[in-house]
Amino acid sequence: MVSQNPFSSFNRPSTTPKFCNTFNNRIFSDVAGDITIVVDGESFLLHKFPLVSRSGKIRKKVADSRDSSLTKLELLNLPGGPQTFELAAKFCYGTNFEITPENVANLRCAAEYLEMSDDYWEENLISRAEIYLKEIVVQSLEKSVEVLSTCEALLPTAEEVGIVTKCVDAIAINASKEQLVSGLSHLNSAGSGKLNMDCTEWWVEDLSVLRIDFYQRVIAAMRRTGVRADSITACLMHYAQTSQVGIGKREIWDPSRIKLDSTMAEDEQRVIVETLVSLLPTDKSTSIPTSFLFGMLRLANLVGVNSACRLELERRIAYLLEMVSLDDLLIPSTQTGDCIFDVDTVHRLLVNFLQRIEEEEPEDSLQYGYESEGLGSTSHASVLKVGGLIEAYLAEIAPDPCLNLKKFTNIIEILPDYARVIDDGLYRAIDIYLKAHPALTENESKKLCKYIDCQKLSQEASNHVAQNDRLPVQMAVRVLYFEQLRLKNAFSESSGDGFLSQRISSGVPSAAMSPRDNYASLRRENRELKLEVSRMRVRLSELEKEQGFMKQGMMEKPGHGKTFLTSISKGIGRIGIFGGPTEGKPQKAGRKSQGSEVKKGRRRRHLLS
């Protein structure tokens, strides 16, 4: 049967020699061979002439041999091993076989080893393999990935002959083309000309079969060719979630289900994690899921990555700390005899988070025109979210009997006071800690309770504090004292004596008020000023209407000055811009002189002006 593959060695009938499945493989079943080639312990009984006519290496060995009747030749470290040499021998004999993505790299490297160039035979094996790579492999992303994966066992020869570079560049170029074609095919129905960036790249899964060093080169080439950062992030996430790092897709970074691959050396796992972290996009606009970052952080702790890798992960997580969940923060501790959870890592995350807030605050101060310790700024909302998150985190780690007081208080101290609007959550966490650590001394309990601001406790929490036997007596006394002040203020405001306190709350902030209350007071004052401006606008509109009426009266009755002045007086009385209508005693008609009438007329004209 004739082969129709254009990359078969020759299109001739298969009546030509074939290999026999014996220990001493023979090309011809009917003609005895004159040389035995040994490759990795496997022998091939062949003929010298077809081999020396196409292989420069075998020709040189036969020519350099002192024994003119050389009958055995051993080839050491031949790329691809016996299977590839069998194909190369078939090529020398002109036997048909098909070049495929699975064997082209092996054939190219074996041909380089055997020196099967065009110097010895026209269209020799090197040329045939290069043509296949150029016309078939590099035109397809899928075939390029397949060939590149076979190069792992062919180093350094595959690198020297350029197969690795060709495949890496081909993958990047084809991925960029696929991205463009996919985006154009998903133009929105409105016809605005915007590309749809949410389409999933089909080649993301294909790249996960590559070794980490090849994968790193592919990602770098993709960046150079303009592949989108979100597509690169999807590639990195899929690669990390494959079995190459011991995590399947279903685990989704659940700390209780993470297990390292027992078949992979610990050093190799560490290299994978460090490489993936170094490949993460640096563009802040690129969204990286926090669950992925925390999963990588847990893996980093398990395999013992270098400090630069761990700090980079912590920095990235701190930038998104307000969006993480409580489960994300519950990182298991890897140290024997330590706490259940890794509290030190969370503390470092908070340090990085506050550094980011400090960097953002100058911009917010310029935008809003004031400095108020983060109050009113865009970063203040983030601080409040993180404050609530840390309160829940403290309540989760508090029952741990191995958690010492220093680590617990370090988490409390790191956040500013304005990170908590009320201290109910903090009180709950401290109460749980006191219950789980009954061996604390009285001084330690007092030190811990000082972090609770009694003025920020709700009515329910205050009642609980007053009846809590685990708290120091001073704590209950402080709560009762502030509760009395609260009741006194409430009683004062309900009576008429609360006017002054109301003025303070809506006017200039008091020095005794907390920063949060000061900000709320300024907000209330701003609302009152806006309301007063609205009232003045309404009054101005009424004046403009009245002025129009007066002008219309002057045009209709130009000769009746007395009636006109009377209408002006009535109009001003109705508006009452300076108060209510003038209250005076009735005047007697016969007791007023002409001079008083003149003065009255002048006073009315003065009011009009």
TrEMBL record:
Keywords: Coiled coil, Ubl conjugation pathway. Residues 519-546 form a coiled coil. SUPFAM superfamilies: POZ domain (SSF54695). Residues 578-609 are annotated as: Disordered. It comes from the Eukaryota. Pathway: Protein modification; protein ubiquitination. Residues 600-609 have a biased composition (Basic residues). GO terms for biological process: protein ubiquitination. Residues 33-101 form the BTB domain. It holds the Pfam family BTB. Gene3D superfamilies: Potassium Channel Kv1.1, Chain A. Residues 201-486 form the NPH3 domain. Belongs to the NPH3 family. PANTHER family: OS12G0117600 PROTEIN. This is NPH3 domain-containing protein.
